[in-house]
Write a structure and sequence with these properties.
The structure holds three protein chains of three kinds. Chain B is α+β, with helices and mostly antiparallel strands. Chain B has four domains: about 1-165, no CATH class; about 170-400, no CATH class; about 405-505, no CATH class; about 505-610. Chain B is about 65% helix and about 10% strand. In chain B, strands 2, 3, 4, 5, 6 and 7 form a six-stranded antiparallel beta sheet that branches. In chain B, α7 (about 120-145) packs antiparallel against α12 (about 310-330). By secondary structure, chain C is mainly alpha-helical. Chain C is built from six helices and one strand. Classes of the chains: A alpha/beta, B alpha+beta, C mainly alpha. Chains in contact: A-B, A-C, B-C. At the B-C interface, α13, α14, β1 and β2 of B face β1, α5 and α6 of C.
Chain lengths: ~200, ~650, ~160
Amino acid sequence: MKKFFIPLGIFLVLVAFLAVGLKRNPQEIPSPLLGKPAPLFSLSTLDTGGAKFGPQDMRGKVWMLNVWATWCAACRDEHPLLVALSKANQLPIVGLNYKEVQAQDAPAGRQLTPEDKLRIARERSAVWLQRLGDPYVVSVFDLDGRVGIDYGVYGVPETYIIDKEGVIRFKQVGAVTLETLQSQILPLLQKLNAS
Amino acid sequence: MIVEVGHFALILAAFVALLQGVLPLAGTLNGHQRWQALARPTAIVQFLLIAVSYAVLTNAAVTDDFSVKYIAEHSNSLLPVQYKVASVWGGHEGSLLLWVLMLSGWTLAVALFSRTLPLAMVARVIAVLGFVSVGFLSFILITSSPFERLLPAPLDGRDLNPLLQDPGLVIHPPMLYMGYVGFSVAFAFAISALLSGRMDAAWARWSRPWTVVAWIFMTIGIALGSWWAYYELGWGGWWFWDPVENASLMPWLFGTALIHALMVTDKRGGFKAWSVLLAIGAFSLCLLGTFLVRSGVLTSVHAFASDPKRGVFILIFLVIVVGISLTLFAWRAPRATLGGKIALVSRESMLLANSVLLVVATGAVLLGTIYPLIIDALNLGKLSVGAPYFNAVFVPLMVPVVFLMVPGGIAHWRESRGKELGRQMRWPALAAVLAAAVILIFSERGTWLTAMGMALAAWVVVGLLVQIVARVQKPGRIPLSFWGMHLAHLGIAVVVVGITLVKGYEIERDVRMGLNDTVSIENYTFELVGLNEVNGPNYKAMRATVNVSKDQKPLEVLYPEKRRYFSTAMPMTEAAIDAGPLRDLYVSLGEAIEGDKPQWSVRVYYKPFVSWLWYGAILMALGGLLAVSDRRYRKSALSAAS
Amino acid sequence: MKSSCLQLKALCLAACLVWTGLTTALAKEALPMAQDPVLEKRLVLISEELRCLVCQNESLASSRAELANDLREEVRKLIAQNQSDQQIKDYLVNRYGDFVLYRPQVKPMTWVLWFGPFLLLAAAVWGMFSYIRQRQSAQTAGVALSDADRHKVQAILKSGDAP
């Protein structure tokens, strides 16, 4: 009788899903911000003159936002690629230094003020960028991670491509690889620059 | 050198398992009794070989042989010896070796305790178990060998995850695996029944004790896991609906359904196909659980380090085993004759309802567990399904199951008159209403959910008391299985009380404490009186001394700790618990707080009746034990063979 | 008489106050970790339904990860701004997607998830009742013979051997 085949049928459907699932990474979270305007911010830059920067300053250009920190090993891995990319003058890269200064950096018994944190972050980044190369047209500091939350950052490094109208078109979670660059980023750049 | 002996023994075991699978089964097809008789000896040899292999790995752990890669990854020279022994099952490869050891152990048990069974049936059962063993042994030898060498050997091992360095680790996985593997015996009996075409009451009668024993281990294993998480993780939770937890709950639910369905098949010859299907399903869920936990398709705090290659292997194994079983079922099950007539109100119909409801509940848990995977596979994005979903769906589905325990016990076989049934249930009904009323009227924080939980528990307890009173008044000896049933059902009621009351009335205080600060919950007061550094065998800790008093009188001193193990950077919370039959007092030490005077963040919990969760599980296990000890299973001449 | 009673009462009261003052000065009632316990209670309720994104399956309420601390702080800010639970959840979903919710939203994509179990229940119960109704009439309560046994019986019957 046909109904005795139902359990087998259900099982095979289940297995099909499991098989497809094996190829997926359950930890990769797609960004809901694709196709949405890049959240605005106004943050201090590496330049101690007091200038501030935000995405509105890049209107009319296709640009890359790279979220990084000196304490992040994977950021170190992807850095040479970014330096090479900046040298090739493909697009301006903005560095968003994320939560550079953490709780354990405070000397015992004292709280760090925001000015302290900015100062330490600037010092550390300057040293790091000097040693490993500076691919950024401008570096900004997200000390408390609030801008990161607006961008849906949950780990470093993360990289966004934003178009001329200020809309997020691409997000890479984890280090940018040569493969990503070739297969996804560069073709996208061509498309966005053409429009 | 010895390590390679262990590896070699495993390879031999795989060949013996293959023989164990092929020869006795062929013997049942061509009628060669000598081949069928090979079942027992091959099972014994397989067990011995795997035992040797396991002993070798354990020896490597205990003697700090870090040239063995698995030991280097999961053990450490500073580890106390009991954890070195336990580290053997602390990781993927070793835990699989434990699995096959237990599988061969259960097979050995079947070989030794089956004197009264017909040879052909023993041959089939052991052959099926042999094939399952081949699958697992191949998996180990091809993708997950614990005997791989690491040369040059490191000076010391990486250490066992500190969370696992705990007495609970020593018992929880072995208990759970005994349960998982035990269901393979019920499975083997079911396949054997399908193969022979004799899906009769005899199969059910032989299968029942094995199924119940597996269920007992599973119950203890799950309860231990819950208890361990409760006192080890530091924030008082005891069930998280994590995929790995669900992977153990689903076979347990099916196993419970199977136990109840087998009663009908055994006594009345009914539900033959359904029982066979449940047995296949229970073991399939065990295999599915193995897949979910070791393949990396789902994120879980428990998951072993995942490797897609392993996932592929397990999936193929799953497809083969379950696919063949279900095909066999579709082909052979229609031949099963139907049992006697079933009345609408009868014990049979109640037991049917029980297993149907449990299957639906299992389906809900399965759906929630793999839904993220389904959505991802369909390219619809990523979503999470967590505790809020499971609580919302599972609890309503289980209420009728628990409710049915009373009418199911009172109803007669064949037929019960509805009115008579109703009359016998008036006392439980009254108790339920009273319990609900007491909660709603007299308890300030009592919600209708709490009231319902207590009503359900009262219904069950008074229901079983009514049945006991009725039975002892009748003449004739009362079988142990009667007491077993009621004890197990009492256990469920106790668990329900525990869940209801702890969820309804627990209190948490999250405070900052300096020296001599106090915090109060109900009539208990907690005072932080000291903070010292202590040194453990492989960790350094901050230990707080907390004086606990009740009604202003000193009660107990608790020592919560924050440990930093040398091997990892992560700090571990060792909560201090004052456990009691009516409540637990739970203190968890947090981090130091920046400020002028030294202060620490401390979490204090008052958890009423939380221990009842585990008392209930113990009662359930004892109930199962009584049921299995029933005389009919110990009778040497089981005249069930028709 | 009355005045001395009153005096005694006043003295007792004064003594009590002094005693209370002394004891509380010696052993202080610990302050809650949170600045605002009411807000904190709501935070716990909301964050129990949210997922910690960098953990292996933990809720935002229980995780100690850095990002979890930041997100909890964010939720506190939103609660202080009088946002509703739904608004707070939407805020996070807009940034992190559905993944951050432990209670999946009820939308076409999750209808099977939310309604499936109950549909299954209905189907199962209906199936069960129709099966029982089907079996109301008595069936042959025999045990099927396997093929081997049937051959044996036939052989015995044919040969006329006594059992």
